[in-house]
Amino acid sequence: MKHLPLAVPHMNEAEAEEVFGWILDGEASDEEIARFLLAMTERSETADEIAGAARALRARYIPVSGPDNAIDVCGTGGDGHHTLNVSTAVGLVVAACGVPVARHGNRAISSLSGVADTLEVLGLDMAAAGRTAEKTLAEIGICFLFAPNHHPAMVRIQPIRKQLGRRTIFNLMGPLSNPVGVKRQLIGIARPGYVSIYGEAAARLGTERTFIVSGDEGLDELSLAGGNELADVTGNEFAMKRVDAALAGLDHAPLEAIRGGDPAHNAKALAALLDGDHSAYRETVQFNAAAALVVAGRTEDWSEGAAMAAEALDSGGAKTLLARWIEMAK
């Protein structure tokens, strides 16, 4: 067994890759891993450490074939705001706009309802969705990559994360380790002051284009409530920007307007959204979908992206896509 460093010193990228290789390969005790993760969280992870840890996870995942233009849209979780499932809805909307979406996610760790929990209530068999991921991505342009199916090394880590019940570096590693190997992503993180660090980590790993975003109130999505930090990552470089709802021609709304609940509550709200309900939830989804469509190269105009998202909802395209997905994943 390996012994993790007691003081958890800052590591360079190669050192982080080695240490997280030990963790993922079961070469450290559960107690040491829990202590190590908490200590890293308390002192904040560096770009080197995030990139190195993500490389360790990437080296151990089970890959999935997908189209070259597939994207992922996800939040790191752990923001404590317990909002409705924004990235879940954004994935459906963007896929209905014709951009393949390889959603990579998990059950709730520190939130009330994760993407898998909500989709199950709506009738998607998550086990079947995992088995048919390549087929649904190829044929209808969407899939759900249930993280434990593609990261066997995470099976042992999951109970430790659940016991800790708070954000750790694993929230940051996951989005950078999509099994399809997507080259374009929209990733929300829960700390606006950390966007530049995470942007640097994504740049170290290389990407065609990725947006790292965080609402000023610590939301791991683009927020309507106020301003948002955005790192625009292209290749091995990134630029910081400030964006708000007006960029996409949308109104501001308080965070409380998208407060969520348990999987049943969130599933009901998502079903209403797909049925054409107009709300702050809809506009939050439009805002984030607009960002995803810019990342995907479908448009450079955020207002046009928001309009495309509205059309996907109003035409019933996103609702029909979910119905087809549920039918195929049986």
From TrEMBL:
What does the record give as cofactor? Mg(2+)
Q: Where along the chain is Mg(2+) 1 bound? A: S87, E221
Q: Tell me the cofactor note.
A: Binds 2 magnesium ions per monomer.
Q: What is this protein called?
A: Anthranilate phosphoribosyltransferase
- Chain sites annotated for binding anthranilate 2: R161
- Broadest EC class assigned to this enzyme: transferase
Provide the coiled-coil residue spans. Answer: none
The biological processes this protein is annotated with in GO are: L-tryptophan biosynthetic process
Q: Which Pfam families match?
A: Glycos_trans_3N, Glycos_transf_3
Residue ranges of every copy of the Glycosyl transferase family 3 N-terminal domain listed in the record: 12-59
- Similarity-based family: Belongs to the anthranilate phosphoribosyltransferase family.
InterPro entries given for it?
Anthranilate_Pribosyl_Tfrase, Glycosyl_Trfase_fam3, Glycosyl_Trfase_fam3_N_dom, Glycosyl_Trfase_fam3_N_dom_sf, Nuc_phospho_transferase
Question: Source species, please?
Answer: Pontixanthobacter luteolus
Instruction: Name its pathway.
Output: Amino-acid biosynthesis; L-tryptophan biosynthesis; L-tryptophan from chorismate: step 2/5
Which molecular function GO terms apply here?
anthranilate phosphoribosyltransferase activity; magnesium ion binding
Q: Per UniProt, what is the name of the gene that codes for the protein in this document? A: trpD
Recorded GO cellular component terms are: cytosol
